[in-house]
Structures are given as structure tokens and as C-alpha cells.
Design a protein that fits this description.
The chain folds into two domains: 31 residues, no CATH class; 66 residues, Orthogonal Bundle (Arc Repressor Mutant, subunit A), CATH 1.10.10.10. A two-stranded antiparallel ribbon has the order 1-2. It has six helices and two strands. A hairpin with a 2-residue loop joins strand 1 and strand 2. Helix 4 packs across helix 5.
Length: 125
């Protein structure tokens, strides 16, 4: 999103001391800022790893995620999640947030084996 790109550009400029921002300078700055190849920063990866490690890929509610990240719910919903949802890494479902296959692949983590048990009651019951 443009707001994230603008924020990152300002941070990259801080590293160049007013010099021209070329590819090498941008790469160096983004590495120092811990921004990965998908444009995810440390907070994005903490969010994804929390869902993967603690909640086995989800579903998990946004309030729980916000508490675990020590961030307000609004920050999670308005700052962290939009790009993760837009890129298809996270799905927002009625039951909570879930990791999509692309997130597992990007994290380099094997998803847990899915349970063969079917729910006893449908959510609509």
C-alpha cells in the first residue's frame, strides 16, 4: 500500500543522509530495517509466527493477537493486517484469523497436520 511504501521510503532516506536513494542504498537500508523480500517487517513476521506457533495456523481472534503482540486492536486491524490480507498471507474469517498456504511457505514453516476429525456440530446449528 502507498502509506507503507511512503513510510519505508522516509526510513530509507534517513539511512542515506540526504544522498540519492539508489537500489544499493535501498537494499542496505531495508536490510537494516529487517524488511524482507515480500515487504514484511519484524511486526508482520511476529504476527504470522504467533498464529503459526501458538495457534497452529488459526483461527485466532484479533483481540487475542493484539494482546499477544502488546498492540491495540486498532493498530493490528489498521496497520498490521491490511497488507497481510491483501497479499493473501492471512484470511480473516468469521472464526478468526488464519494463515494461508503462502504464509507457511514464506515463513519456511511446515503447517501442522490437519485433523481428520469432523466437527460434531455445524456453526449454523
Amino acid at each position: 500500500p502507498p502509506s507503507i511504501a511512503g513510510r519505508l521510503l522516509r526510513r530509507v532516506r534517513d539511512f542515506t543522509d540526504g544522498k540519492t536513494v539508489d537500489r544499493a542504498a535501498a537494499d542496505k537500508a531495508l536490510n537494516r530495517l529487517e524488511v524482507d523480500t515480500l515487504g514484511l517487517d519484524a511486526m508482520d513476521r511476529r504476527y504470522l509466527m504467533m498464529i503459526a506457533d501458538i495457534y497452529r495456523g488459526g483461527p485466532v481472534g484479533v483481540e487475542t493477537l493484539a494482546a499477544g503482540l502488546s498492540e491495540p486492536r486498532d493498530t493490528v486491524e489498521e496497520v498490521v493486517e491490511p497488507y497481510l490480507i491483501q497479499t493473501g498471507l492471512v484470511a480473516r474469517t468469521a472464526r478468526g484469523r488464519m494463515l494461508n498456504p503462502a504464509a507457511w511457505k514464506h515463513l519456511g514453516v511446515t503447517p501442522p497436520a490437519t485433523s481428520l476429525q469432523l466437527p460434531l456440530l455445524d456453526d449454523d446449528a
